Predict the 3D structure of the following.
Amino acid sequence: MSVKINYSKIKISKSSSNLILFSNDEFRINALKKYLTNSEYNYINDLLKTSDLKKNLFIFEVNSKKKIVLLSIKKKLKSSDIEKLGAELYGRITSEKNSEYFIISDSVDTNYNNFLGYFLHGLKLKSYEFKKYKTKNKDKIISINITGNKNKPSNQTQLKFKALEEGTFYARDLVSEPGNILHPDEYAKRLVSLKKNGLKVNIYDEKKLKKLGMNALLGVGQGSIRGSYLVTMEWNGGKNNSKPLAFVGKGVCFDTGGYSLKPAKFMEDMTYDMAGSAAVVGLMKNLALRKAKVNAVGVVGLVENMVSGNAQRPGDIVKSYSGKTIEVLNTDAEGRLVLADALTFTEKKFKPKFIVDLATLTGAIIVSLGSEYAGLFSNDNNLSEKIFDAGEKVEEKVWRMPLHNNYDKLMNSKNADMQNINYVGGAGSTTAAQFLQRFIINKTPWAHLDIAGMAFSKYGGALNSGGATGFGVRLLNKLIEDNYE
């Protein structure tokens, strides 16, 4: 099922065109009389008198060829409420046989700026499905035609939302791909194609990574027949001399756990252990498409954590890019090893204004926060507050968790500078973040988002229909839009 939105001057047939109209929060439809025949108006008005008006929308079948969808615009709306209303409409009309609808933009009566833009954005986000590998895929197209003289989103607004949708959908596509298709070699190859969008893309392969001394990242991927990579994507849309905003993503394309092997049950879900990197890629594509007035860099570490005769062993010691040594006590605590090298490299090479990393890092964060909030860990209060506020606005929520020097002793090693897990137990997400913080060498403002509970949804959410969510793209876009452009 896909949605096509048209801004056209198609004439509406009074007898058979399916209409989408908006009323106030009490479903008073006096102002809509001009769009309806007398019989339609009386019929709908009578039904509303005996209906539950707490609902957001009604679908009225006024004859065998025509339906009228009526949505209420509630008071004190937030943009996320409007997006959810659009998503709710999509969920309802997909079960209908009709495939063409007309939104009367003149029926929108609200002071909320760009109501229809947010409404259609929510509808589009909800419509995403990953059907690439369905052999019998007869895609039904729902056509939404916007007609009227008022309240239409401007061309600039349409482009902004389209860029955000494309970035989010690209992230969802990457996460949805199976591990045999989107291994690190293929992933790196796909990122090169982003050059056509205006991004500067650099690929660091194993030879270059060895020369740089990124042994923590390389150790994770050494058991795979696939290569390991670090990929940088740069967007320069701001002033030439301004420091870039940096975003770093964990890209473990498949995670068996290595010799610290995961249970077989649900291991197939470990294709989404690269969702942090997908969010970074989707964000960078969005920034390029909408020509954001900001300098930004995305950095992703791409590896596959496999078992083989050459795989990393529990007890191995590696020297990271920072020069610090790590005792690998558990090969399934691999994401932090990838990020360790990526974080220090990003800080050293790009000297950014701040660094935000995203990773499906720990199962412990799901125990803490479920699938409602991502865990936020940070060394900077100002950056944390901005991320929190952005998350609230777009319904990609985060909750700040503690960092403290007292946790460091849990990650200290007898044989190296540190170990990659806390063997004492407890505080799994915090000790992982505490580990990462050691690789921010120059006190750059930094935030870590543990998105393990947010990257994938088996049951769907308000703005997605199940599967990959693309969490992080809209959150970080809002962070940039509100504070740095």
In short: The mean pLDDT is 95. The domain at 2-153 is CATH 3.40.220.10 (Leucine Aminopeptidase, subunit E; domain 1). Residues 12 and 147 are 9 Å apart (CA to CA).
